[in-house]
Design a protein that fits this description.
Elements: H1 21-35, E1 41-44, E2 54-59, E3 65-72, H2 81-94, E4 99-104, H3 109-117, E5 121-124, E6 129-133, E7 138-142, H4 163-174, H5 181-188, H6 192-204, E8 208-210, E9 216-218, H7 221-229, H8 234-237, E10 239-244, H9 249-257, E11 264-267, H10 268-272, E12 284-288, H11 291-298, E13 301-302, E14 309-313, E15 322-327, E16 330-333, H12 335-343, H13 349-362
Parallel strand pairs: 3-4, 4-5, 12-14
Antiparallel strand pairs: 1-2, 2-3, 5-6, 6-7, 8-9, 10-13, 10-14, 11-12, 15-16
């Protein structure tokens, strides 16, 4: 039998009517109830002393019960994670709650991952959910909408997609702070509004913080890069062309080292080996302003089989900025960019990324610019 799903009444050219707080709580409770195993029960049952939000009780077939404190947050974004975590902590500390769950209209992947890291469950009105209990033992997870059906027009504020985010993240990672907003705007080349938006998101996710005198300090640049990699991917964000090097990648590297090609920067496995050798590179990843022109100058043949060279026309100029280091005369991308590019790559690429990240963390003085 098909499980019930809520239908969203969206008219062409209009956003869906946003459900209010009470409706969000009702939908979340009903959706979780329909996903419970057979003979499990879910009811509203106020926790002792809990006067805010709402609470549920889950009962297993053998009669064991668990109280769930519910943080009701109809509009939930990354900037709300700190507030939600604080509210969840208060519920755990002050009331007899076995778990805490957020009920929201929509929980994005990024927000869901942030809640999971805090040990907080969630159920949204589209069917996205993750709820776990120790006693009685229970784990429920499901997928609903992949985009917010109630989001109105305008720029999303929970994403690091786009050139401004790339500029800001790369600047914060590559250069030593702390930062005044005015300096960050100047160094990154991003607009004032974009810089504020990106910093606000990074601050909400605990990756940067404001100091007492208003400067921006980068709390966790490794995870800031990993967070950016969830929205920027070498193979997806850029225009990728695929080629075969008939005489092998060594011949391509030799021609690149001669300096006869246009603007380019090598990334991926070969570039990573300049800082942390992991395994011999079996293919080349190259950023190029003119992929066809570069391919012609180094003797590549366009192909869909036997591909050993990927040439990307960069979505944003900042990602192909060459670093200060070369390898055998070949220009390389900055090490932070190389690591991010590998994070979402195929095969062993993610492992190479983590090996490079480990080196970067241990040797910050060798690559971060004062």
């Amino acid at each position: 039998m098909t499980e019930p799903r809520y239908c969203l009444n969206v008219q062409r050219g209009q956003e869906a009517r946003r459900p209010g707080g009470d409706e969000v709580a009702r939908r979340a409770q009903e959706l979780l109830r329909t996903r419970l195993p057979s003979r499990w029960a879910l009811t509203e049952a106020p926790l002792k002393g809990l006067s805010a939000d709402t609470s549920w009780e889950i009962e297993s077939p053998d009669g064991r019960r668990a109280g769930i404190g519910v943080v009701l947050k109809p509009a939930l974004g990354v900037r709300d994670l700190v507030d939600v975590a604080n509210r969840a902590t208060r519920i755990r500390d002050r009331y007899d709650a076995d778990a805490v769950v957020v009920a929201a209209r929509y929980v994005s992947t990024q927000v869901g991952e942030g809640l999971e890291r805090q040990g907080i469950g969630y159920v949204d009105a589209t069917g996205n959910m993750r709820v776990s209990l120790t006693l009685p033992g229970l784990f429920v997870a499901d997928k609903g909408a992949t985009a917010d059906p109630w989001r109105g027009p305008g720029r999303r504020r929970d994403t690091l997609k786009g050139e401004p985010a790339a500029r800001v993240v790369r600047t914060l990672a590559d250069r030593v702070g702390p930062w005044r907003i005015s300096r960050l705007i100047k160094e990154s080349g991003a607009s004032t509004g974009s810089v504020y938006r990106v910093v606000e998101l990074l601050e909400a996710e605990g990756l940067v913080r404001r100091t007492s005198d208003g400067e921006i300090a980068v709390e966790d640049w490794p995870n800031m890069l990993r967070r950016w990699a969830s929205d920027y991917q070498f193979l997806e964000t850029n225009a990728i062309t695929r080629w075969t090097a008939p005489r092998g990648v060594e011949s391509v590297l030799h021609k690149l080292s001669q300096g006869t090609t246009g603007g380019y920067a090598v990334t991926g496995s070969f570039a990573a080996s300049a800082w942390e050798s992991y395994a011999p590179a079996r293919s080349l990843w190259i950023y190029a302003e003119n992929p066809d022109g570069l391919a012609g100058s180094v003797g590549l043949r366009e192909s869909e089989t036997g591909v050993n060279v990927l040439v990307a026309r960069p979505a944003y100029p900042v990602v192909m900025t060459a670093g200060s280091r070369t390898l055998d005369g070949v220009r390389l991308s900055c090490p932070t960019q190389v690591a991010v590019d590998l994070m979402n790559g195929p095969g062993r690429a993610p492992s190479e990324a983590e090996a490079l990240m480990t080196w970067l963390e241990r040797n910050t003085d060798e690559w971060r610019v004062p």
